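My hope is that you will study the record closing this message with an eye to the fold:
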Amino acid sequence: MKKTSNHKEALMREMKRRTLSTMHFAEYAVQKRHIEDRLKYYDPTPIANHKPEGCRIIAFMITRMVRFHGGQTSILRIGTELEKLGIRVYYLVYKSQSREDMCICAESNLPGYKGRCLPMAQYLRLIEAGKCKTPDFVCASSWDTVSLVKQFENSYKLYFVQDYEPYFYPFGEEFLMCRNTYFEGLHMVSLGAWNREMILREGKTDRLGKPLVLDCIDFPYEPGEYDAPDRDYDSYATRKRFTIAAYVKYYGKRLPSLIPYMLQNTAARLAEKGIELEVLYYGEAKTFKPAGGRNLGQLNREEMSELYAKADFGMVASMSNISLVPFEMHAAGLPLIEFADGTYSRFLPPDSAILTSVGRKDIAAELLEAAAAPEKLRKMHDSAMAAMKPLSWSASAEQFKRIMEKAADNSIKILYFSN
């Protein structure tokens, strides 16, 4: 009997081993194709930047223009403001995409944007034919575009660092390839100070032994686009129903499993006290179905404004560089729930949000405490708005232009504008 039992256990172990091996190989095959696609363009050769001839033309390099993309919207905002300052701006894609489709996506991200959309190959042909001038500056917008800007031999290479991208990947090939781009000699411009601090932890010189050139501009928002409704914070104390607008994305830095888990538990705890919690997710396609609420999908500006007006609280996880979402929620007057473990307090005052932490099972106590203290909610809003008052995309674009002008003056001085 014992021998039969041991034989069954051995068979089970072998079945599990083969199943895991098959799963691992399937994952490897997918990742292998992905990495091979990356390697088609990847060039880790360090460069030595040379003084640009002027400060008239800049080309931003993008992988492919897509809709509902916060990072590309930021590029379009900076580019639009630089156009207003007299700089000719191009937005280039290196993957296959028509100019018409680029323009549709760009207009969706930022209606009325300024600048010119072109596939990179078409732009290079126009330069070769003498129909376009070589840009004074060419600017990488993500780690996978760094290798592409190196093809512009006669342009000064910038690198607009919008997040610490190695954190987007498990430790491995892409993590290391991504991290290496910070040390390949490009002039980096960090959106906010946090990215800069993360890069300088890794090193202070590039692979040619020269000091990193790493400037900062403020992480802004556009104050004129948001009208805060006249929120009745006093009514929160007697409410029997609350609505939370929760920003989610499928990737880990947005806590796509933890936030629904916390909100489900929160709803159960509040229900015990006779209070209903409605959770409205947004930010990811409607095919993404997080538990405990309804996913409204990817929203345009008008739809987001409607959601913020309807909601009583906003929730977002800024676990790497902060995004526009917390600024938007504050501007709409939403009491904000954020994570103390993330970067929120690096950009805005800790007393301007309800701070929870990774590992908490629910936030029912925090919501009830905040709802019972309307004066605290008003002070949170006032604290956030005071910190945000100096910020705007036009001011950050002015900072970006000054960085370009310093490069054209062949100055090595680091310009550090940052919240």
